[in-house]
Structures are given as C-alpha cells and as structure tokens.
Batch of 2 targets.
Target 1
Amino acid sequence: MSGIPPGPAGRAAVLCGVGGRLPERIVSNAELSARLETTDEWITTRTGIRNRRAAAPGEATSDLAVEAGRQALRAAGGEPADTVLVATATPDRRCPATAPLVAARLGLTGAAAFDVSAVCTGFVYGLATAAGLIATGVSERVLLIGADVYSSIVDPADRTNAIIFGDGAGAVVLRAGTPGEPGAIGHFDLGSDGDAEDAIIIAAGGSRSPVTEHTPRAERHFAMRGKEVYRHAVLRMTASSRATLAAAGWRPEDVDHLVAHQANLRILHSVADATGISRDRCVRHLVDVGNTGAASIPLALGHAHDTGALVPGDRVLLTGFGGGLTWGSCALRWPDLSPGTGRRSTGGKDPR
Ligand code: UT7
C-alpha cells in the first residue's frame, strides 16, 4: 500500500465478517483443581469460568491468528485485505511484530501490517485504528485480529492467573462503507492510566529490565494485582460504556448486547448493573473459554453470531479493559453477515 490520500468525506469502517480459532485442548476446572490448590467451586463462584483452551506445545499466537483471520476473510466474501492488524500482548517474538507474518501466511504480502499493543483492550484500540485508516482513505479493507497465547506468559503454578486465562484468536474484517449503515463502527471512547502500569505486568524482558540469569522467576511471568484490577475494570468499563452510549445517543435499555472484555462474570454483571443494562444482555463466552485477552471481544462476538444471538440491526456495545491500564468502548448496529452479504451489508431490523 502506498500514498496517503486526503480523507474522503462520508467514509466509515463497516464490519463485514467475523472468525475465530480456539486451540483444541480444553482445560477444565477439574484438571486445574487436580494440580493447583483450587476447586471448581472457587473458580466458578469467583469468576464464572468452567473451561479454557490451551495452545499445543509450539502453537504460537500467529498460528491461531492466521486461522481466525482466514475464517473472517472467507466470511466477508474472500476479498483480500490491504491492511492487517494484530492486537496482542503475546506476540510470537519481541521483535518483529506478528502482523506481517500473519499477513504473509494469509497470502497478503504487501499489505500494511502492524501490531496493536494495548493488552486486553487491544481489539477495541484496533477497531479505532482501523476506523481511522478507513475514514482517511489510507485503507480500504482491514483484517483486525485479536490473538493471545496467555499460557506462554502465565506461570502454570500461579493459581490466581492460571484459572482465568485461556488461549485463542478472534478476527473481524472491516470494509469501507458509509456512516450510519449497519456494521458501521463509530462512537469510540478510549483511555489509559499509566500510573497503574504495574497492576498488570511482566516486569522483566523489556528495555527497562532485560532478562538475565539473575532475573527472578516471578518477574519473567505475567503478574496481576487481581483485586485492584477488578475495581478498575468495573469503574473504567462502566464510565467508558456510559460515554459511548451518550455519544451514540442510545439509552442503556436500547442495548441488545453488551460485549464486554470477558475477564470475570462478576465484572460483566457489575458493569451491566452500573450502566443500567440488563444482565441478560451480557454476552458470556468466558464460561467456556476463560479470559482470552485481546481475543475475548471478537471471540465473544463470533460466538454470539454463530449461535444466532446477534440479529441484524441489533445494537451492540463493546467495552474493553486491560493492562496499561487501558480501556475503550465502541457502538455498532449488527450487520447482516449471512453468506453473500460480505461486500454490502443491509440491516434487517427496524431502527428504534
Ligand atoms: O484481563 C485483564 C483484566 N483482568 C481482570 O479484570 C481480572 C480482575 N480480577 C479478578 O477477576 C479477581 O480479582 C480474581 C479472580 C483474579 C481473584 O478473585 P478475588 O475474589 O479478587 O480473590 P483474591 O485475589 O482477593 O483472593 C482471595 C483469596 C486469597 O486467600 P486469602 O488471602 O483470603 O486467604 C487467595 O489466596 O482466595 C485465594 N485464591 C484462591 N483460592 C482458591 C486466589 N486464587 C485462588 C484460587 N483458588 N484459584
């Protein structure tokens, strides 16, 4: 891709395909209870999670991302993307980014490709990035993948984090369209608070503290101050959801689906309660797959789409939260993604 034309007026990024990939291996609460000091009851009541997936040895973020991306591109009608974004906190390597490799493996060599680093909020940040690239005419068709292999960074002996996180990848395709049509991505709210950088952290391995033979084991692994993160997650996703609702001109009761970062079922319910959205509007994919980081929102969207819960025209509120700290939300009307509609979507439900 070359050249950055001035932004053509009236362009918007429109969602036109979803896809996802989960590793084969299911890790149940029973399996974790057998090797860690925990119980199915503790995990279920504290988090709502029953199962999560684990990548096979040697299975990397790009492997899951390629399959999720392939599925999303196919669902969107098979046209190639000119831009590939991978939101991840677990890139295949520290350098280079994972997105160019994913693009090449999808036959998209030459596409613009880079990673979005905003931990579990990465997918929402990626949506905003894609929306900007399309609105300004830089990109015509963006493949955005959220993918994480948390099993590569969580200490398997850390009972608090090992029970929460799972591996997976979810993807969407965004095409150039017009604001207001079903699937148009808009009304973003994004934010961060770097003062709480160490609430979710891998302390060693970056330029601040390269890994040496003296690096303690705890600093090489993912660490999270669970209770503090929990509080922030509820506050930030609630405030961000409210801001996005106000920008979209929606009332809480207008929301058909709240697709929040799948961190903890109690967090989802607290955000719904505080925002004034009925709990039964929460998409709850985490029960089966845990917290899949940047993959959690697109995987939850794909799950809701595949099970028929998402109907064209539905009002969908996405909200994410993660390390950084970072957070963000976005509103969209669900497009018609039935086969053959990947290029032009038409809403099936009367506007309310
Ligand atoms: O994706 C980024 C965003 N992440 C999140 O939003 C996660 C937010 N945090 C959480 O979801 C919750 O804080 C956790 C699920 C991580 C932990 O739940 P909690 O209710 O906050 O538990 P806690 O960490 O305060 O621990 C309570 C007790 C402690 O024991 P004591 O000190 O009271 O004796 C822990 O040692 O539970 C203990 N504990 C466990 N017990 C059984 C911690 N993990 C476990 C476990 N099994 N797996």
Note: The pocket of oxa(dethia)-CoA is lined by residues 38, 42, 46-47, 120, 159-160, 163-164, 226-227, 229-230, 233, 263-264, 267, 291, 321-322 (CB under 6 Å).
Target 2
Amino acid sequence: MNIPAVIGIDIQDDWAGKTAIVDGYTGTVIIDPDAATLEQMSEKMREDERKQQLLRELRGKETITKSGKKIHLYANIGSVSDVAQVLKNDGEGIGLFRSEFLYLESETFPTEEEQFKAYKMAAQNMAGKKVVVRTLDIGADKQVGYFNLEKEDNPAMGYRAIRICLDQQEIFRTQLRALLRASAFGNISIMFPMIISMQEVLESKRILEEVKTELREQNIPYKDVEVGIMIETPAAVWISEELAKEVDFFSIGTNDLTQYTLAIDRQNPKLDNIYDSHHPAVLRSIQTVIENGHKGGAWVGICGELGADTTLTETFVQMGIDELSVSPSFILPVREAVRNLE
Ligand code: PEP
Ligand code: MG
C-alpha cells in the first residue's frame, strides 16, 4: 500500500494514547517523542514526500539505461486488488501473481469459475500488458486447512507447490483450465514454482497440453500462453541449460533460492543476520541462470525481493537480466536506478 511499516513489535499496554513515530525505513518506533525528535522526523517525512514526488515524474518513462538497454519492469502481486497499485506506480506488467491467495482466502477449493473470474479481471485490468500467474505454491509457510496436509518435520523441503499439483492433478487441472480460459482476455503467462527436475517441467507441460485439447474440444477459446518456471532451487540452477530449451522464460525466486542455497530457513528470525541474498553463491547462481537461459532461448527475470535491491541493479543489468519484478512501491525507485546506469 506504499505505506512504510514496522512489523513484529511487542506492543506495550502503557503506550496507549501516546504519540508514536513509525519509521518503516529504519524499522524503528519511537514512543512519546520529544519536540526535537518530532521535528527531525517531520523533516524526514517532508524529505520523503519530495523524493516520492520526483519519482512520480518517472511515470510514463521507459525503464532503459543511458546506452539504450531496456529492462522490463514488472510487479509482484498477491491479489487482484493489488493491480490498482501496479497501475498507479506505472508497472509495465505483472511478473509474479502469487495465485495462492485464492486458496488462502477460501474455505474450500476455489472453483474453476471463481479462479477464471479473478485471472480474467487481472488480465483485463492490465489491458494487454503481460500478467505472469504462478500456479499454486501452497505448503511450507502457506498452509490451507482444507488441503489436509500432514504435519511435516521439514515443510520447506516437503510436500508443496508443484509437488502437490503433480500428485493431486485435479487441483492443478482446474487451475490450468481457469488460466487458459482467462488467457483469451489479455496477455497471461503461466509459471510453475519450485521446480527441481526436467521431469516436473515435461509433466506440467503435458498436463497443460491436455487441458488445451479439452478446451478445444469444447470450443472454449484460449491463447497459446508463454510458459515459464521459477528458478528457486539449486537443482534448477544446475540444470538450467537443459530446462531453458523447454520453456519460454525463467523467473529467479531469490527468496527461496537464498534459503536453499545457504541452507537457512527464511522464516527463522534468529538467522536473519546470516540470511544473505548477496552471498556470492546466490549471485553466481543468478549469473549462471541468465547465461543458460539465454543459451536456450528463454528470457530471464528476477521476482524475489532481491530484484528490488537497487544496490544490485547495475550488477543485474551487467549480467544481462531481461526483467525485474518487484513490489509495486519499488517500481519507480528501480526505474530510476536503471535510468541512471550508463
Ligand atoms: C521466491 O522464492 O523468491 C519467490 C518469489 O516466491 P515466494 O516468495 O512466494 O516463495
Ligand atoms: Mg518461492
């Protein structure tokens, strides 16, 4: 919502009724500030507003370096209502639509019709711009009661995402039917999460083709959508040269790629100080995936949080990245960073 926030605070009873300053940039909350602090922070707020104003002037401008290298700057969203923020911040498309929300917000499996309506609305609201929808990435940190998933000792490495979809294919087929039907109303691409093998890619594509055949037989229109995969496991990095020949694009999920490369639970706050997406192993993985993607004819983007890290924008552009997909509030800062590059 473009509002800097602080989370994970232990709120004290005696704060009630007091003035508080919330600084989402530094992660600080100041209770009952003195006059000098209040003035200092008010100035910081005015300064931020001036900066936001300058960034707003970048709306409608291209995301291009001074020497003419164009980057596709897309947005990550978690529900159809987020599309408004994407348009407000001049996103050039949606690079990651986390479709899990449909399942998380529902009491039972969302029907094909419910899903179709949501995807269609996103596609129509984006008016021909690319909308990459990631198929169900449930499990691990995203639990839904009616899936009746068993408790696991190691859920991040457990029964989740594409593994569930290939195991319980009816759930997968319903989503793919809804996505293909919605594709007739805009520019939808389909992306599979948590891929570790060629077999998963071929099997997912095979099911997608079967669903297409079914739709054709029923005279239901759809488009030949682009198909991509998330690269968020070291296994996918290492076989990316082969995988690239089977898909139209790669989107690097640096949140999970960091977790699985460094063997650090992304959910464990005790490990925050060593959960380091700048680790050379992560950066070299990104470089490898870009090179292998291009060799196989696939375009390559980043949709993990690292894509919005403007200290790395130059590095990514030098590596040859084609697309960056970031939270709506980071679109204009990233555009500014790209436009400042030679
Ligand atoms: C990622 O892993 O980087 C990613 C974009 O997916 P999520 O954060 O939804 O797991
Ligand atoms: Mg992920």
Note: The longest strand covers residues 72-77.
